[in-house]
Specification:
126 residues; alpha+beta; globular
């Protein structure tokens, strides 16, 4: 099945597969504490969160770039991206999957894992 994007086409893959691909991409760039949360039935906007941290601004940028590149190879384009590595929180919206890349300090401050504590953690070790 193909999914049309502005300016091109992409391949539709399942949300869980997309989340796992994003998590593996983050792990390739040595992201800290990569987690995939299953939000199905809990959050109406997305089915999965991928949450990870980088140690510094260059690593946060590298993680975001690797995720975007790996998902592009699967025919997926980011629908919306907010934040910059300098802001210490990059959010990448892939529809059913939202990727959050934090600095360690920002991740502790926002504590999304606690906020979405009802979510099932699919995987923590990549």
């Amino acid at each position: 099945m193909e999914l049309l994007f502005e300016g091109g086409k992409g391949v539709l893959i399942g949300g869980r597969e997309l989340a796992m691909t994003a998590a593996r991409a983050a792990a390739k760039k040595k992201a800290i504490d990569v987690q995939v949360l299953d939000l199905q039935g809990i959050f109406p906007v997305a089915d999965y969160f991928v949450i990870c941290s980088g140690r510094n601004i260059p690593q946060i940028a590298a993680i975001a770039r690797e995720i975007q590149d790996d998902l592009a190879k699967e025919g997926q384009r980011v629908c919306r991206r907010q934040g910059t590595p300098e802001s210490e929180w990059v959010l990448m919206d892939y529809g059913d999957v939202i990727v959050h890349i934090f600095s360690e300090q920002m991740r502790q401050f926002y504590n999304l894992e606690h906020l979405w504590g009802d979510a099932k953690v699919i995987s923590q070790n990549f």
